[in-house]
Write a structure and sequence with these properties.
By secondary structure, the protein is of the alpha+beta class. It has helices spanning about 5-20, 35-45, 90-115, 120-145, 155-170, 200-210, 215-230, 235-240, 245-270, 270-285, 285-290, 295-305, 305-315, 320-335; strands at about 20-25, 30-35, 50-55, 60-65, 145-150, 175-180, 185-190, 195-200.
């Protein structure tokens, strides 16, 4: 009998998941606890992943993170090495080309306005740019004083994920911040040339409540993907003048998000973890681990041909969540990833 791909890995993960674990709590042995119970303790601040632990039936005390799935992080090297140019969504550059074409009449109209106005419109443009710069400085001040910057000594597990991902992508690490906001979101930004990634606590807490660092690495990789793909570079920002053709602008936005999803998958090194992170954004932390991902993907395929689903997709800046879950199946097959 031929075993399916990833059989032994899944078997080992299942064994770890159901293994009971003893911990050293206030100098005394406590337990045994299930993985779910220990994750609740870690999330509540009662335990650290570095606390000593021993599996039921074992004799050696080791750091808790070495026994828990929650201690997994993205691999230091890609699970499946591929050429980096394959990470970009195949249709993104086509959408960007059309956006550049649409921007030409907008830039010509601006030039005519400036010439016809004897340069006076430049004063208005300068005022708008100055206000934009003030807004960026205001935001940067808020970020520096209301968020925590990730470093070797500040949230080192998360910092390791960022470093590994940037190394695999061949890019310099941007500044990464974690900021309190109970919204499942994160974003990449650029302030006066400084590249930044901001992870909102609503997303980070939700993933780590029931998930693991490998799932979080998909989220980090997704935002790094915007920097890696140049979505925030001036060359692409110039194309935004073509946004008057709204359907082209939205098309490019969706393809850019799919590029970042592909980068996230590459950084996480796991289809299962990447899809679980996306499902987390759909149903929340408590139910994400119980969702049948294949059924969720099939749900998208069942409804994607409906008129209002197509209409909603056409006017969305991001691909719909279940569409992204299904899309990752195809990307993983393209990359040669199993599970």
């Amino acid at each position: 009998m031929t075993l399916p791909p990833g059989f032994w890995q899944d078997a080992v993960e299942a064994q770890i998941t159901y293994m009971k674990i003893y911990i050293q709590e206030k100098g005394q042995t406590a337990g045994p606890f299930s993985q779910a119970e220990l994750q609740e303790k870690i999330y509540g601040g009662q335990l650290s992943r570095l606390d000593l632990a021993c599996p039921e039936g074992g004799k050696e005390w080791v750091p808790l993170e070495s026994l828990m799935g929650a201690g997994k992080v993205a691999p230091a090297a890609p699970a499946v090495p591929i050429a980096l140019d394959r990470l970009r969504d195949p249709k993104e550059m086509k959408a960007l080309t059309w956006l550049y074409i649409a921007s030409v009449p907008a830039w010509l109209l601006l030039l005519v306005w400036i010439v016809a106005g004897f340069g006076i419109p430049l004063i208005i443009i300068g005022f708008i740019l100055a206000m934009k710069a003030m807004g960026e400085l205001w935001f940067a001040a808020h970020l520096k004083t209301s968020a925590v910057r990730v470093s070797e000594t500040q949230l080192p597990e998360l910092f390791a994920v960022v470093q590994n991902s940037c190394r695999n992508l061949g890019m310099e690490c941007p500044e990464v911040y974690v900021m309190q906001q109970n919204v499942w979101n994160s974003f990449a930004t650029k302030v006066f040339g400084r590249r930044m990634v901001v992870l909102l606590s609503g997303a980070v807490d939700s993933i780590l409540l029931k998930g693991d660092m490998q799932e979080l690495s998909w989220l980090v990789g997704h935002e790094l993907g915007h920097h890696w793909a140049g979505h925030l570079n001036w060359s692409q920002r110039l194309a935004k003048a073509g946004s008057w053709l709204v359907w082209v602008a939205l098309w490019h936005s969706r393809r850019s998000e799919l590029t970042s999803d592909r980068v996230g998958l590459y950084c996480a090194g796991s289809l299962k973890a990447s899809q679980r992170a996306l499902v987390n954004a759909t149903v929340g932390a408590q139910l994400a681990g119980k969702v049948n991902i294949e059924e969720a993907a099939a749900q998208w395929r069942e409804h994607r041909g409906e008129f209002f689903v197509k209409y909603r997709t056409l006017y969305s800046t991001h691909p719909l969540l279940l569409a992204r879950v299904d899309h990752l199946n195809g990307v993983a097959a393209e990359f040669g990833m199993n599970g």
